[in-house]
Write a structure and sequence with these properties.
Strand content: 5-15%
Helix content: 40-55%
Organism: Aegilops tauschii subsp. strangulata
Order of helices and strands: HEHEHEHEHEH
CATH architecture of the domain at 82-220: 3-Layer(aba) Sandwich
Pfam families: adh_short
Shape: globular
Structural class: alpha/beta
Family: Belongs to the short-chain dehydrogenases/reductases (SDR) family.
Protein name: Short-chain dehydrogenase TIC 32, chloroplastic
């Protein structure tokens, strides 16, 4: 998710600090993002690899490609996501927000974890995994994550479905952090709520976009 929005800004700052950045994205925006970063920082090390987090096949292909490059892995930012989209199923027959926002990141993290453990052990530098979650995790279905009804179109609510996917991000981070600590691995796992930011993530919520625009206008006016 490093091709636009806060993911692009994260990639830019990492490149500025001298990190070798791998932008994983499903579309051609990633190449444009790399170009923009290189224009500002000509010596930056930025590569682009294809990844569609809604597809478990794509996640596995990306992990195989990355691991075959024999690169160290110090930091993994799980930033990509979709929000408030109409009901649809992924190619793996899973509700799209849960598939993209949680399952894709969950599998990706697991497939790259051995690399990060090896890197942390060989370099002595703490590995870091960051899941981009949201305060929206507080607004989910009354019973929490509906594992047995993920694909039930009749009860689907776009905002609560988003909330449950963000709750899953947090539970993933907490449990993985516990296991890594128990194992003695030199890796931290955290979740972060980035706040309300006008990015492409808002494309399915016109009302929310307008609200942010109004708040921003009033803030700067005052």
């Amino acid at each position: 998710g490093g091709s636009s929005g806060i993911g692009l800004e994260t990639s830019r700052v990492f490149a500025l600090r001298g990190a070798h950045v791998i932008i994983a994205a499903r579309n051609t925006e990633a190449s444009e993002a790399r170009k923009r970063i290189m224009e500002i920082h000509p010596l930056a090390r930025v590569d682009v690899l294809k990844l569609d987090l809604s597809s478990l096949k794509s996640v596995r292909a990306f992990a195989d490609q990355f691991n075959s490059m024999n690169l160290p892995l110090n930091i993994l930012i799980n930033n990509a996501g979709v929000m408030f989209c109409p009901f649809q199923l992924s190619e793996d027959e899973v509700e799209m927000q849960f598939a993209t926002n949680h399952l894709g990141h969950f599998l990706l993290t697991n497939l790259l974890l051995d690399n990060m453990k090896t890197t942390a052990k060989s370099t002595g530098i703490e590995g870091r995994i960051v899941n981009l979650s949201s305060v929206a995790h507080l607004h989910t279905y009354p019973k929490g994550i509906l594992f047995d009804q993920l694909n039930d179109k009749k009860i689907y609510n776009d905002k609560m479905a988003y909330g449950q996917s963000k709750l899953a991000n947090i539970l993933h981070a907490k449990e993985l952090s516990r296991r890594l600590k128990e194992e003695g691995a030199n890796i931290t796992v955290n979740c972060v709520h980035p706040g309300l930011i006008m990015t492409n993530l808002m494309r399915h919520s016109f009302a929310l976009m307008k609200a942010i625009q109004v708040v921003t206008y009033l803030f700067w006016k005052n």
